[in-house]
Amino acid sequence: MEDRPKKEHRTRQAGPKSDKGRRKNAEKNNPKAFAPLSGRRAEKQARRNMDKDQSRLHVPQVDRTPLEPPPVIVAVVGPPGTGKSTLIKSLVKRYTKHNLSEIRGPITVVSGKKRRLTFIECPNDINSMMDVGKVADLILLLVDASYGFEMETFEFLNILQTHGFPKIIGVLTHLDRFKNGAALTATKKRLKQRFWTEIYQGAKLFYLSGVINGRYPNQEVMNLSRFISVMKFRPLVWRNTHPYMVADRVEDLTDRDLLQADPLCDRTVTFYGFLRGTPLKSTTKIHMPGLGDYYPDNLTALDDPCPLPESQRKHLSEKAKLIHAPMSDIGGIIYDKDAVYIDVPGSFSRPGQRKSIEGSEDGEGTEEAGEEQQVPPMSLNPYLDHAKCLLRRV
Ligand SMILES: Nc1nc2c(ncn2[C@@H]2O[C@H](COP(=O)(O)OP(=O)(O)OP(=O)(O)O)[C@@H](O)[C@H]2O)c(=O)[nH]1
């Protein structure tokens, strides 16, 4: 078998590898490398390339906002004492007629037939600014006009650059401190120019002149609130492609005995909030800023605690206006995993009993009171005081 001569391949008679085909291709190939053979074809090619470039630049952004969109996150940012709390109180009063005495945690209000707003007051530290920059749809940037721009404001604008720039509205406060009209006009003009340089030419700036009864003047607040209610938001790329949530309520479900035995034990914590962006799967690892990555034990969809008014209603009547602020001092309905609570402000325990539980000054607290006091409380305020207390560590 080995001696048998190998049979030669037959030469190809047709196709690109045949002699005929090769000769034909050689004729077609341009010896001057990629120089066009015909002017018309070259022009067509150039036009096609330009079209392709343009369509790449204008890829339509998918708007993933559901029919009933989650509340728009409005962050109120500014150096201390610029009037952040005063502005949130004024806006909440305008939208809901509620008088807030203290701002704690996010406050969600129904601002129109199709829009809800969640107000967050941003504390004046860099970590809070970064967290706010990641989630806010609209920033109300407060500036004390009698003082001018401060370093924090510019730092905050720098932080925003890295997270996709949300919409920004400037708000000048403390304008009543100017007694001289000319000085006021000059300051307004100067600050406006500076604001436009930092944001963009023509960025919206509101002026608030003075505080009446702990709130800004009604007309000025109304102008601002109307502007916010009709604003359009373009989805930012990262937020349009990831699920994210701002927790507006935190519950520590850890067993008290366990906690007493080891205050640093792993804790079980439930977070409540509106989900934004894309749907969230239970197998997704969740990143919590400042804490790390965790797998959730369980995800549950609850009833909307602050639903939009029914679509058939023509006007948003006073009664339909709603507020949802579980961390603040307003009474209301709290939706739990398996129950609905009506939170009634005030204490229902008997005064004597209450006193003994709290433990009087001369140390007459009951045993129960002693136990209560030893357990480290889970702070609700800016959610995550206890870094090691959350969910199952990865
Ligand atoms: N005269 C005047 N006082 C104002 C104005 N805006 C706010 N204030 C006062 O400034 C003080 C501070 O206001 P807040 O609303 O607590 O300011 P804040 O930015 O929340 O302050 P921090 O919580 O410390 O960051 C309050 O006493 C307000 O009454 C204003 O436009 N004019």
UniProtKB/TrEMBL annotation:
<comment type="similarity">
    <text>Belongs to the TRAFAC class translation factor GTPase superfamily. Bms1-like GTPase family. BMS1 subfamily.</text>
</comment>
<feature type="region of interest" description="Disordered">
    <location>
        <begin position="1"/>
        <end position="65"/>
    </location>
</feature>
<protein>
    <submittedName>
        <fullName>NUC121 domain-containing protein</fullName>
    </submittedName>
</protein>
<dbReference type="GO" id="GO:0000462">
    <property type="term" value="P:maturation of SSU-rRNA from tricistronic rRNA transcript (SSU-rRNA, 5.8S rRNA, LSU-rRNA)"/>
</dbReference>
<keyword id="KW-0067">ATP-binding</keyword>
<dbReference type="GO" id="GO:0034511">
    <property type="term" value="F:U3 snoRNA binding"/>
</dbReference>
<dbReference type="Pfam" id="PF08142">
    <property type="entry name" value="AARP2CN"/>
</dbReference>
<feature type="compositionally biased region" description="Acidic residues">
    <location>
        <begin position="359"/>
        <end position="371"/>
    </location>
</feature>
<dbReference type="GO" id="GO:0005654">
    <property type="term" value="C:nucleoplasm"/>
</dbReference>
<dbReference type="InterPro" id="IPR000795">
    <property type="entry name" value="T_Tr_GTP-bd_dom"/>
</dbReference>
<dbReference type="InterPro" id="IPR030387">
    <property type="entry name" value="G_Bms1/Tsr1_dom"/>
</dbReference>
<dbReference type="GO" id="GO:0005525">
    <property type="term" value="F:GTP binding"/>
</dbReference>
<feature type="compositionally biased region" description="Basic and acidic residues">
    <location>
        <begin position="40"/>
        <end position="56"/>
    </location>
</feature>
<keyword id="KW-0597">Phosphoprotein</keyword>
<keyword id="KW-0547">Nucleotide-binding</keyword>
<keyword id="KW-0539">Nucleus</keyword>
<dbReference type="InterPro" id="IPR012948">
    <property type="entry name" value="AARP2CN"/>
</dbReference>
<dbReference type="GO" id="GO:0032040">
    <property type="term" value="C:small-subunit processome"/>
</dbReference>
<keyword id="KW-0378">Hydrolase</keyword>
<feature type="region of interest" description="Disordered">
    <location>
        <begin position="350"/>
        <end position="381"/>
    </location>
</feature>
<dbReference type="Pfam" id="PF00009">
    <property type="entry name" value="GTP_EFTU"/>
</dbReference>
<dbReference type="GO" id="GO:0003924">
    <property type="term" value="F:GTPase activity"/>
</dbReference>
<feature type="domain" description="Bms1-type G">
    <location>
        <begin position="70"/>
        <end position="234"/>
    </location>
</feature>
<dbReference type="GO" id="GO:0000479">
    <property type="term" value="P:endonucleolytic cleavage of tricistronic rRNA transcript (SSU-rRNA, 5.8S rRNA, LSU-rRNA)"/>
</dbReference>
<dbReference type="InterPro" id="IPR027417">
    <property type="entry name" value="P-loop_NTPase"/>
</dbReference>
<keyword id="KW-0690">Ribosome biogenesis</keyword>
<dbReference type="InterPro" id="IPR037875">
    <property type="entry name" value="Bms1_N"/>
</dbReference>
<keyword id="KW-0342">GTP-binding</keyword>
<dbReference type="GO" id="GO:0005524">
    <property type="term" value="F:ATP binding"/>
</dbReference>
<dbReference type="InterPro" id="IPR039761">
    <property type="entry name" value="Bms1/Tsr1"/>
</dbReference>
<dbReference type="GO" id="GO:0030686">
    <property type="term" value="C:90S preribosome"/>
</dbReference>
